[in-house]
Amino acid sequence: MIVNRNIKRIWSLSMLCLILLSCNSSNQSYESLPKKVDFNFDIRPILVQNCYLCHGPDPSSRKANLRLDTYEGATAALKEGGYAVVPGKPSKSELIYRITHENDDKIMPPPEMNSKLSEREIKLLQKWIEQGAEWKPHWSFIKPSLDNEINDIDFYINNYLNLKELNKAPVANKNTLIRRVSYLLTGLPPVTEDVEEFISDSSENAYDTMVNKYLNSMGYGERWARHWMDLVRYAETKGHEFDYTITGAWEYRDYLIKAFNNDVPYSQLLKEHLAGDLLKEKRYDTETGKLESQIATAFYAMGEGTHSPVDVRQDEANRIDNMIDVTSKTFQGLTVSCAKCHDHKFDPITAADYYAFYGIMESTRFTPLDANLSIEKENIAKELLEIQDYIKALVTEKVSPQIQVEKNQKDNEVIKPSNDYNLLGDFRASSFGKWKTSGMAFGEKTTLGVPEIDKHSGKLIALKEGVASSRVFDVGVFGSLRSPDFILDSNFIGVRARGNQSTIRIIVDNFQLIQNPIYGDLTKGINSSEWANYIFNVEAWKGHKAYVEILSGEYKQHNFNLAKDAFVEAEYAISFNKEWPSEIRVTNNDQSAKQIKAINKQIKKGHLKPSFYELITTIDSSKKLSSKLKGKTFIYGVSDGFAKNSPIFNRGRHQDLSEDSIPRRFLSALPLGDVPFKSKGSGRLELAHAMLNKENPLTSRVMVNRIWHHLFGRGIVETVDNFGLQGKLPSHPELLDHLAIKFQKEGWSIKKMIKYIVTSETFKRSTLVNKEALKKDPNNIYLASFPVRRLESEAIRDGILVASESLNATVYGPPVPNYLTKFMQGRGRPEKSGPLNGNGRRSIYQSVRRNFLEPMMTVFDRPIPFTTFGKRDVTNVPSQSLILMNDPFVIEQAEIMAQKLLKEESLSFGQKIEWIYMRAFSRKPTEDEIANASKFVKQLEDMKKGNNNNADFDLEIWKEYCHSIFNLKEFLYLI
Amino acid sequence: MSKYHNFMQKPLSRREMLDICKGGFGSLALLSLLGPLPLSCGQSERSIINPSSNLNLGPHFLPKAKSIIFLYMDGGVSQVDSFDPKPRLTKENGEDPRKKFKVDATQFDNVGKILKSPWEFKQYGECGMPVSELFPHIATCVDDIALIRSMTSQFPEHTNANYFLHTGSGLQGRPSMGSWITYGLGSENKNIPGYVVLDGGLIPPGGLDNFKNGFLPASYQASILRAGPQPIANIKPKESIPNLQEQKLSFIKALDKKQLAEIGEVDAVESAISNYELAYKMQSSIPELTEFKEESKATKKLYGFESDDPHTRGYAAQCLLARRLVERGVRFIELTCPKVSADRWDQHGNLKDGHEKNAHAVDQPIAGLLKDLKSRGLLEETLVVWTGEFGRTPFAQGSNGRDHNPSACSMWMAGAGIKGGTIFGRTDEYGYRVIENEVSVHDLHATMMHLMGINHEHLTFRFGGRDIRLTDVHGHVIKDILA
């Protein structure tokens, strides 16, 4: 390998110093200063920690009108004379004068801040000014670049190890390696046969083969999907008071598993999350043809849901805030939510940036989506619409010339705007006007002119009048029709409609969890095939923004459901103040509507008797095709609303708005951040494009860092969700850039990146820590050895199931209900407990009910799902030991393992121990260990003999032994 | 001062400590008497070894209280029927409130007539504090109580208001006040969790997230204790013969130690090993707590163990358990309500019946608790807080209930650092809105923390790029009620 010594030594050196400093800050003597002081790595951290609270980007808390986050600010003339920073001249810089001042009333930072600059920090600032006080944008806002692209991971890692004079640990043994790779790639321990195969494979590419096997196993997707679920606060219920179910949340979980297993490029994954419903090029499952790309949008709707908020506008603001928080942390590693009330105190993120995002979210609508939409369904729908058009054209052509529409006097009358009502939508003509559909049920236009043909005789019965209908194809097809936003200014909204097991709702401020006591009037079930006027009292929400939603299907306890024969049809929607108006004039009074009326009249009178016998078979087969469009399972995702720019909420209060609205756009400090979105909808697709823009410095870095984090237990940037000024600096900046560039070049392939990392020598090192390394690098930042780490909650539980050979390999599907203990109480508690062993399914398939989280999962640090957690805590508390010692699940599995062991009748004692060791530790026991085990088993036998009235004596003994094994650290840690 | 010794002492390093506990199984428990376990070096990593002090140099100033008992009156007690008498309601009973004052949107939007209190008020104690007939026992303790009549909430709806009261934010996911306090101060007793919720039967709306650690490490979440032989989950060994578990644990420890010797010094693994010692100890220390063997008949009677009302007896056991936890150095104890009825104090209808039953369940046990703490000298180092999540409307919902009212709520505190016999804050003549000395939930939190020796502005946790506090950017200590 050609080693290029020409790395950015200065960068690295200053990095080293910094890390040393942070580990050793109390030390009097300090690391010598770098030759060239780097603003990003040496200076900015000092300024962020000590100065920006009062001299940072947020003008509202700025003191003395001095800002030190920009060159212009720091070098501007001070009010009291002089300059904070005079480049090249520390002695003339007020900043140096003040930080070295002896008087309490002059010194900076002021004494009440409780932060004093160290001698080294002062010297650094001096030297930096001396060298010209160069300013740079924050490191993560500079596009990744490398001097040399031929180096690899080990080069960068070894470079630091050499600089630090750290000795590398040797490569780990094969047992350790397969266990490590298997757990980290799939979340499961390797099965005995795989271990044996790998050990006996002496070929050169044995390791590669092994890695590929796990990378291509089902378990890979299950493991990496769960990592991702931590980012998007995955849950299957809405929490709050009654913990209502989120419709089909688990479909999103399955979507992730499939996407990771199919190695869908990260760029695609990102697009699908942000705008999967808007993509022109949709992604379908290659095997089933199921439409995948829209399912990702469910992540927007995974947040907490509040019913009956008294301040519905605030409720919307809270929900959007959570969406912004999760979106910006997950994809950009930025905490945009901090700019809700004022400009970010540290990062170059303004309140305007936040409200630009706000508009994007506010213009997005929550909606159920048919989870089983597929390329087949889409093609059928297309075909059926073509057939319908064809029939319609054929019929119209035949009957129209026979009809002369009488010129009616009325037609020429100018319609006076009525004071009595406002027409919100009129479906008696052929179009939906400005209303938008989602789902396929409503087709592309109203029913106007669709011929009704007797299916036996082929006689034309009539041409349909115009209504919006969800049974354009058939009943039981999912679809919704939504009005544009409007401001409520009347007492009532009325919709003339009919239908079956369907719904019309008035959505005020995007509020969805409509129910009594406050909001009950805003939803009406449509359950009559007779036309009727449905009236909504909206007086209480005058002045709020709203839209009307006409929906086939209904919400039951907020869980969406569509009956086989559900449908809804509407003629028009109005708003009015007193009584339902006696007549609703057709505004869109086109000729065809009249003509159709005239034709129908003629047919009724018997003057017109056209027959279309030749169409009967077509109509018949259409019917059969239509039934394939019925929706059965649903997810809760989003569809696009109408573009709305948001004003700034001063101090975060929706009652106090800025005059101007902020155009929807990306973050101003990032490339494309100054380009307002053109979309007439939310602009989510443009948002995705901005994040994937080649110049974006964050998207790739953030994701490769997450991958590194999951493999090594610590990111190159340790604060994986925060690449802002308050996040940690990268430990290996060039390596991070190297990975980020490679990731993009190789088509954003997550599998390729993982493979690249796990085949490095760095990854293969043993965990052996030598004393010297421990002293020099106690936190193992430089990776002289592989870090020892505890397994995650899921891996511990799944590992137990594998060891006891009880793992049920079923994949996908509705969650297994959690086993409920008596400590899990409260409203919304499921009526029935799930099975103790979770049916043996992997933990990712156990239900995640916000108010009834699985205790073993939470105790072992699965995060509480309310915002993005890219990095789990690793706590160490007695309740973890209590679970492993006393939880009935753990004990049950120990017993099962013992049963299976005893079925292997021919095993000697040593072989029994080996059987257990292979399952628990992926290795054989040493002779010492067997001797040790023998001693222990004897002890157990002696104890049990005392009260031996048990037929299953052996089982009892081995159960205790297996249970002890589950408690060993070698079982719970990757060692 | 001895009880605060662990703040002053130089903490042992992990290594020193583990050296000490090289002895047999169980020796580590001794160490718990010495003080909090030191945090691992990389605190930024949050590889928290054990709940322990995060204030670096101990409390910010000398604490008055060692523990807090939080008596949560789930559902919202009516202030005008308990601690805030309003003669005007009697005078104008049955009149239309909308003609008297502006009525805010209420949750059930079923505004009835002005409703007088069904209960009489009398003055008690040297201070002459008026208390309604609902609380005859608590009334005998008023000289130890500082009453606040001017609490407000920001939310007229249970779940938001519960989260707000417990975490300082109306949304799910923030750390609970008990989590903050144990995060700040650590626990005084390593064999019992520092933050305990005594589940009386009703977990408040919003569920267990009211007691969760939010973004703080999971070690700071509440342990839920229930009455009975298995007070917390998995506390009972399942081994069929005595000493068998110990035998297994010794085996485990020996193998673990060997492993550790092979890989070198790994802090996390060392701590995991020592956790077994603690867990083992907890198996006896926790159940012992809920056995009241050594409690005298007189003590039990004081709490209401002899009451005819099973709910009183149940709550009495909770209150006695709270005292026992205080004795063992638990930092934060919250009592949830007994299951008198499914709607707790939330009487949207049948105010008289519902409030009477709820009051009967808690009145004697609470008074018993205050008296017992006092006679043992524990009241001066224990802060007792009594509150609901909001108050109720002075007008009826329907004909005989009251709706939620976040604009005024009565609550009280007693014990450590509290000026007994004080009345703070004032509501208007209807008891509908606060008109003087409004106390926000943030103020309550600031005051509770203050009494525990914590400056609420300085106890922060970096999350999502912000240093977050329990009190957000608000909160003032209520000085007027402090002794």
How would you describe what is shown here?
The complex is a heterodimer of chains A (975) and B (483). Chain A has 975 residues and is of the alpha+beta class. Among the domains of chain A are: 37-136; 247-372 and 633-696, no CATH class; 399-628, Jelly Rolls, CATH 2.60.120; 888-974, no CATH class. Chain A is 38% helix and 10% strand. Chain A contains 32 helices and 21 strands. Chain A starts with 8 loop residues before the first helix and ends with a strand. Chain B is α/β, with parallel strands linked by helices and 483 residues long. Chain B has a domain at 67-231 and 310-481: Alkaline Phosphatase, subunit A, CATH 3.40.720. Helices cover 30% and strands 16% of the residues of chain B. In chain B, strand 10 and strand 11 form a beta hairpin. The radius of gyration of chain B is 24 Å and the shape is globular. The two termini of chain B are 19 Å apart. Chains A and B meet through helix 14, strand 20, helix 26, helix 27 and helix 30 of A and helix 5, helix 7 and helix 8 of B.
